[in-house]
Specification:
about 300 residues, alpha+beta, Beta-Lactamase, 5-stranded antiparallel sheet, two-stranded antiparallel ribbon, rod-shaped
Length: about 300
């Protein structure tokens, strides 16, 4: 596998895995985060409604008083609202009120009046002075669609006289959760794509310098003349300068070797002549020839 491909795959693998796990964390946290925000809103609304219901509850006309009448008017209103491009046409709240025994005395849907809710966690804990909330299926056995219930105490001064439970289907916020998750995945896909482009650019930049250095080193090893490498202020530039220094030293060494070889070749002929003359001087020769060979050696 080529070095450039290895660099790109390594970079893309690191960035891609990091982006994937970060996206998964965000996507997984969207749903509980939105539901926690919804629960906080329900807590505020339940306590406001509990205060508003106190007078009718104390007077024993909770099912026929002003509080219920105004709730009915609110339920009949048409909400011409658009939230994050999602239309909202009606109020999703369901309100139930129980007495101090946990018996339902009012239900905004008129279904559970008279039912004993004292064992439900929202009513049970609120009757004991604690924070009560629960999430239950809209229909028994269907865990895919649940309803968040948040309770608030109804008081007459310091005396507890009932419990108001405010409920909202979790399905009412599912479109917002899904839209947020899609947005995160879409932005994550853009991030991964941008990371791939950055990886390609970085790989090209690194490989461009490495390939230049490779061609230069091959030319030097072949004894060819090569143009100097462009100046760089990084490790590749340091390596290029080291190769250039090595080339200069090798060229100087080659010159010395060539000079020595030429000098050796030039000295072979006179040395051979001197050796031959010296050998002849060892033989008996006329005096004139001996003097001539001595002059040749001196010259």
């Amino acid at each position: 596998m080529r070095l450039g491909l290895r660099l790109f795959l390594g970079f893309f693998l690191i960035v891609g895995l990091a982006a994937f796990f970060v996206m998964r964390v965000f996507v997984d946290e969207v749903k509980p985060g939105v539901r926690q925000a919804m629960e906080s809103t329900l807590v505020d609304a339940a306590n406001v409604l509990a205060v508003m219901a106190a007078d009718d509850m104390k007077s024993g006309r909770i099912a026929t008083g002003d509080f219920v009448r105004r709730l009915d008017q609110a339920q009949q209103r048409e909400l011409r609202a658009t939230v994050w491009q999602f239309p909202k046409r009606r109020i999703d709240y369901r309100i139930t009120i129980t007495d101090t025994r946990g018996i339902v005395v009012y239900d905004s849907e008129g279904v559970d009046v008279g039912r004993d809710n004292s064992r439900w966690n929202d009513v049970y804990r609120t009757l004991r002075g604690e924070y009560g909330a629960r999430s239950s299926p809209e229909k028994p056995g269907d865990a895919t669609r649940t309803v968040m219930h948040v309770a608030a105490p109804i008081r007459d001064g310091e005396r507890l006289i009932g419990v108001l439970t405010l409920a909202q289907p979790n399905s009412s916020i599912d479109p917002f959760i899904e839209a947020s998750q899609r947005s995160i995945m879409r932005q994550g896909a853009w991030l991964i794509g941008l990371s791939a482009l950055i990886g390609i650019a970085i790989t090209w930049w690194l490989m461009r310098g490495i390939n230049r250095l490779n061609r230069y080193a091959q030319a030097v090893s072949a004894g060819e003349r090569a143009p100097p490498l462009p100046a760089r202020r990084d490790e590749i530039g340091d390596l290029g300068r080291a190769v250039e220094t090595m080339r200069r030293k090798l060229e100087g060494k080659a010159y010395v070797e060539q000079y020595v070889q030429s000098l050796t070749h030039e000295m072979k002929s006179p040395l051979a002549a001197i050796r031959g003359a010296a050998e002849l001087l060892q033989e008996p020769l006329p005096e004139a020839d001996r003097q001539r060979f001595v002059r040749n050696i001196r010259d």
